[in-house]
Write a structure and sequence with these properties.
22% of the residues lie in helices and 30% in strands. The chain has 452 residues and is an alpha/beta fold. Strand 2 and strand 3 form a beta hairpin. Helix 1 runs parallel beside helix 2. It starts with 5 loop residues before the first strand and ends with a helix. The structure holds uridine-diphosphate-N-acetylglucosamine and magnesium ion. Uridine-diphosphate-N-acetylglucosamine (UD1) binds next to helix 3 and strand 10.
């Protein structure tokens, strides 16, 4: 039989009022990616995955983010928030059109791992029709409790309906459920809202399935993986867990982090082998670091490629579109944006390099500024291979400096410079012999006279 694959339904209709934000909860970010993006990334990893997201009214920004992160996702609208059971039914069309397994994830639970999802699916392969992901809670209050008997899951009891002895149970529902049911829509349709909250509880699906002779199983995972985010405080906790994982992963893959707790990765940071990262480095999205790169302390790096053997920092800022070539040196207080620096080029001290190209082996002196913006448009600066830009020069774009050319220190260069030429733009130096001694004598006399 052809594996009909998996349909993943992500519930994201909750507004998340405790975030106190204009932004829907699932758009808040962890490591530079929305929580919804994290969940969709996880879901898209599964084989033959089909994706559906359930959003609430007035959530065009959630729809846009879903389509950005997973272009083939089906977006379904839950008109009013009548409970998790009702939310899954908002994706009725997707369920009806699907014959394989169905898994339900929450958009505000971004730390799940692929291996846990795989274990949940293995429970279906092992004969369960419904598999629920549970965890042993340090403080179970507020969660649905998993009721088990003889190794089988018999029901999920929401806290409001639980008896005192059921509330003693610490094995809790994470919210993640997987189904292999002949007629899932019929089970979902049988859920009623006659409970303390007047909601359609998805969790009732377990008991309904069992009355139909179907089997339910619980799979457990660490509590940390199913942390649901309801507040900024929990968002920060999730960020900390993500960063810890990312640091461990970086080191396991051959990077040296001198002070791991001070390095902040993005969800998509890529590091080669034998990369060394000194303390206090922040990676925004879209950074790719190749082998043998050293990133010195206190750098901020976003949407940048750093090729093999390059050295960056301390205190460098690499902005979107920076392409740092092999063995390039970017030193302290250098800002680079939308620039290619070819192999072996150097900009070692205090500089702004924006919109252009620096050829192989060229040297950009201290205090060089690429004047790329005239208040209306950005213009490019092209520097040929082996050129030497003297310190404290202003290069007014658009501008081309030929291969091997020199620019004298302190110049304001507004016209192209041919290959091999010297461009110098400053007044000639005057030297007046003996002037200093005469000046001091005159000043000393003036001062003495004024004091009389
Ligand atoms: C739910 C579970 C509970 C579990 C807990 C884990 C039910 C009935 N209870 O409770 O067993 O221990 O999660 O965190 O499922 N949502 C919608 N539409 C709705 C209602 C909710 O899309 O009408 C979404 C929310 O955006 C959220 C998720 O479903 O992502 C869970 O809803 P929430 O109200 O937080 O459920 P809990 O009461 O936490
Ligand atoms: Mg919740």
């Amino acid at each position: 039989m052809i594996n009909p694959g998996l349909l993943t339904i992500v519930l994201a209709a909750g507004k998340g009022t405790r975030m106190k934000s204009a932004l829907p909860k699932v758009l808040h970010q962890i490591a530079g990616l929305s929580m919804l993006g994290h969940v969709l990334k996880l879901a898209a990893n599964a084989d033959n995955a089909r994706l559906a997201v359930v959003i609430g009214p007035d959530m065009d920004n959630v729809r846009a983010e879903a389509l950005k992160r997973a272009p083939l996702v089906g977006v379904h609208l839950q008109h009013s928030q009548l409970g998790t059971g009702n939310a899954v039914l908002a994706a009725r069309e997707a369920i009806a059109a699907h014959t394989g397994d169905v898994i339900v994830l929450y958009g505000d639970t971004p730390l799940l791992t692929p291996s846990t999802i795989a274990r949940l699916r293995a429970a279906l392969d092992g004969g369960a029709n419904v598999a629920v992901l549970g965890f042993h809670a340090i403080n179970p209050s507020g969660y649905g409790r998993l009721l088990t008997s003889g190794g089988q899951l018999t029901a999920i009891r929401e806290e409001k309906e639980a008896t005192d002895s059921e509330r003693e149970i610490t094995f809790c529902n994470s919210g993640v459920l997987a189904f292999r049911c002949p007629d899932l829509l019929a089970i979902l349709g049988a859920i009623k809202n006659t409970n303390a909250k007047g909601e359609f509880y998805l969790t009732d699906a377990v008991e309904i399935a069992r009355t139909q002779g179907l089997k339910a199983a619980a799979v457990s995972c660490p509590e940390e993986e199913v942390l649901g985010i309801n507040s900024r405080d929990q968002l920060a906790s999730a960020e900390a867990i993500f960063q810890h994982r990312a640091r461990q992963h970086a080191m396991a893959e051959g990077a040296t982090l001198i002070a791991p707790g001070t390095v902040f990765f993005s969800h998509d940071t890529r590091l080669g082998r034998d990369v060394t990262i000194e303390p206090n480095v922040f990676f925004g999205p879209g950074v790719n670091v190749e082998d043998n790169v050293v990133i010195h302390a206190n750098c901020h790096i976003v949407e940048t490629r750093i090729r093999a053997g390059a050295r960056v920092g301390p205190f460098a800022r690499l902005r979107p579109g920076a392409d740092i070539g092999a063995d390039v040196h970017i030193g302290n207080f250098v800002e680079v944006k939308n620039m290619t620096l070819e192999a072996g080029a150097k900009a070692n001290h205090f500089a702004y390099l924006g919109d252009g190209r620096v050829g192989a082996g060229a040297n950009i002196g201290a205090g060089t500024i690429f004047c790329n913006y005239d208040g209306y448009n950005k213009h490019r600066t092209e520097i040929g291979a082996g050129a030497f830009i003297g310190s404290n020069s202003s290069l007014v774009a658009p501008l081309k400096i030929g291969e091997g050319a020199y620019v004298g220190s302190g110049s304001v260069i507004t016209k192209d410079v041919p290959a091999g030429a010297l461009a110098l733009e400053r007044n000639e130096q005057r030297v007046v012999e003996g002037w200093a001694a005469k000046f001091r004598t005159m000043m000393a006399r003036k001062k003495a006279k004024a004091a009389e």
